Amino acid sequence: MVKQISKQVGGTTHLNLDIEESADFVYKSLKDKIYLVVFNDIWPLEGFNFLLRILPHYRIDSKLMFTTRLREVATYVAGDDRGLIYSMKNLSTSESSELFWKTAFLGDPQEMDPLKKQIGEEVLKLCQGLPSAIVAVGEVLATKHTLSEWEMVLQDIKSLMSRGLPVDQIALEESISALSFDDLPYHLKPCFLYLGLFPKGSKVKVEHLYHLWMAEGTISQDECQNNETMMDLAERYLNDLVQRKMVEVKEEETPSLRKYKCCWVHEHMQDHCSLKGEEYFFKVLDFGLRTQRRANKRMDPLLISLEMKKFDHLRSLLFLNPRDPEMKLEWPRRMFDLKKYRMLRVLSFERVDFQERGLPRETTKLIYLKYLSFKECNLGVLPSSIGNLSFLEILDLQVSSPIIIPNVLRKMVKLVYLYLPLECKTPNNDKLYLGSLKGLEILENFDTTVCNVADLFEMTNLRHLSKTVIGILGDLEQIVRRLDVTSVHASILFPSIKIKNFDCYTEERHSVLRKLLNCQILHTPYMDGHLGRLPRYYKITSSLTQMVLIGSQLKDDPMKTLDKLPELQVLVLQDDAFDGKEMICTKSSFKKLKRLELSTLNFLETWKVEEESMPVLSILEVKNCRKLQIPLQHELRNRFPSIKFENDK
């Protein structure tokens, strides 16, 4: 911020003002006076318009003078006969080079690393002969000593200039990272700073990040546009941070509900993110968790010392275990009192081993919780008191081992996102009742052996559903009806269905599978069981992006049907999915296929791959296809260098 200075010299007052804080001062000082006011370095047009509003209606003898780096601002300010524009001459190429190297490098530029010199020349071109820009950028580079640091400055300047910021203004800031942050709209600042809570260099799953933003109130339903959900809003904000080169992302390989898979803070912003976060009360408490192996089960003393502290104000408590994915943190026998954290909104356990002691009782007394996660934890039983968490909106039960879940999830009527475990059961082997959760938007791992299919008809807001159907014809029939209803209302996007132990030896069962494959919104079917034959390609929805066939025992070459699916990107044929001897991938087939896996096709001898088939294939794995001819393997390796063969001999 610019300090306010007022100095009387003769009859003239020279003002150097922070405009936003001094509007009233300016108006009172100039009212009823003839004045000359000089405003230095005006470059947002909004700034000029603001000045006109705070200045009194000046008398005809009063004058205003503005300096700016941007011609469009000067043209706008001068207007129609309102003023004159004087353009300073830029330095010549030789003058610019001399000034730049004198500022950026004390030695002889000819003795500089050629790569660093090349970067310097690129930076110099961006300065466009402006002395102030040349000096400002040169002073920044003079403090950088490695090639990578010079490269980072160049990339940062290009990025910020693309958003309309003058190069010398960029360089004059304390750091380019600071300007990147200060230039953020208010609503994006807490979203960016939240990423500073995660270990440096770690990659955060975007769906997990979105949940945390929502639970913390970092994003609000009021900011959603049209039919946008909170998850859509979160993705829009993350995309803004990506466009500003502050966050990097990895995109999903195949179409899904989310565009991105994971994200991380850009290298040049990491330190600034952490430091700035503390100013905004984003604090990381690193208790140095060091879990010993079985021989010595002790929790780090620093964690136990948390018992002696009081954090009534704490809103988020995340137990992260990023060091060794094979190890879990063992929960201490004498747990620190969670009642101290009664205002918690977010509680996340990651790879924590609760063993036989179960969940600490105080957890279910945190009635203000909105987010609760047991991702990859060992937790044998979920206590029935979990139903007391009536404000919970996000519940992640994707534990790493089978778990017993009491039939109390129905009480959590505010749940929007529910992630069930891969393996679970109820105490009495009853089915979980979820029909009261009418607000669910995402439901993962819905298993018909544990859940009632009829409950899905009550969930009219579902946007994503992944489910497993095991063997029962009636369950699959209801699933197909639910998807047909969805096709009319177009509420569920990218549904995924896993069918296990479902053999189609009768027309009745085969008919249901044909109806499933014709559902217009189906994207990722996983089918385990005898099928015998595939429907004609025009009877299969064109929306399929992934397909897994296991033990299908198809008699006809599946490639002749599947190669015509326009959006198919992943195909897996496993465990005698095809009983024939020959497969053919014809010219220009599988135009979008990226991944192909052939595993344990015991009868396959010949596979013909014509030119221009699978043009974008990047992953090809062939395993345990023992009769597949060796010459073909060499041919495929020449065409697909990344091919992976693991055939048994």
TrEMBL record:
InterPro entries attached to this UniProt entry: Apaf_helical, Disease_R_plants, LRR_dom_sf, LRR_R13L4/SHOC2-like, NB-ARC, P-loop_NTPase, WH-like_DNA-bd_sf, WHD_DRP
SUPFAM superfamilies xref list: L domain-like, P-loop containing nucleoside triphosphate hydrolases
Keywords: ATP-binding, Leucine-rich repeat, Nucleotide-binding, Plant defense, Repeat
Molecular function (Gene Ontology), one example: ATP binding
Segments forming domain NB-ARC: 18-105
Cited Pfam families: LRR_14, NB-ARC, WHD_DRP
Gene3D superfamilies reported in the protein's UniProt record: Helical domain of apoptotic protease-activating factors (1.10.8.430), Ribonuclease Inhibitor (3.80.10.10), Winged helix-like DNA-binding domain superfamily/Winged helix DNA-binding domain (1.10.10.10)
Residue ranges annotated for the Disease resistance R13L4/SHOC-2-like LRR domain, each copy included: 334-623
Superkingdom field: Eukaryota
Keyword 4Fe-4S: no
One biological process term in Gene Ontology: defense response to other organism
Protein family per UniProt: Belongs to the disease resistance NB-LRR family.
Protein name stated in the entry: Probable disease resistance RF45 isoform X1
